[in-house]
Amino acid sequence: MRREGCIKVKAGFMNRNMLNRKVAQITFVVILFFVTSLYINAQITTSQIVGFNFSTMEMHVNNESVATDGATGIHFGLLLPFTIVDHFSVQPGVLFSSKGSTYIIDTVDISISPIYLEIPVNLLLDIGTDAFSVTLLAGAYFSCGVGGNKIESGGEAKEIFYGSGESKDLKLIDLGLNIGAGIKIKGFLISARYGYGLTDLFPDDSSDIALNNRVIGIYLTSSFAGR
Fold first, then answer.
1. CATH number belonging to domain 45-224
2. Is the pTM here over 0.85, yes or no?
């Protein structure tokens, strides 16, 4: 009994250490992002972007749709807009984006929250003036899983393992399409966007299960010209 208690205390201590490391890593990434954005912004025109994700994973089993629940996450990053002609631009960027979903596989209730390093490339059309315009956008994204956690049937949170095969949780790479619209007021763009994942993220290719990211994002983008 005493040995069992020691094992439980040790496990709890390890979980706290893991959580502390995760918090430290996220804090470092946020600080690095803002320092880098300040430096880049002083050199060229950039856009900072932050917002919320309302996401889910569309699931199919034997080509039949299965109900899933959504999750709320955040995103933040940098965009590098290039004007092609007046009111028409291309906008590549890089951001951290947390997504997720809850679903059931073989009676196991799974809640998964992947974190991606995402590279979107969108085409933007501004209709209006510099002071006020309506913006339409469409494009694609490339995402690579860099973190996140998974909880099974109310158990402890475990780190997501990316890759292919039965021992993995999700595939590493996700490709998809973006479409959206927003309102730009004096350099600030408020927009809503829909991300449609094209990649089947279920790691076991031999399975009859398919998972695809579906994300509605609310974005606040600020644009400033560097010196």
1. 2.40.160.20
2. no
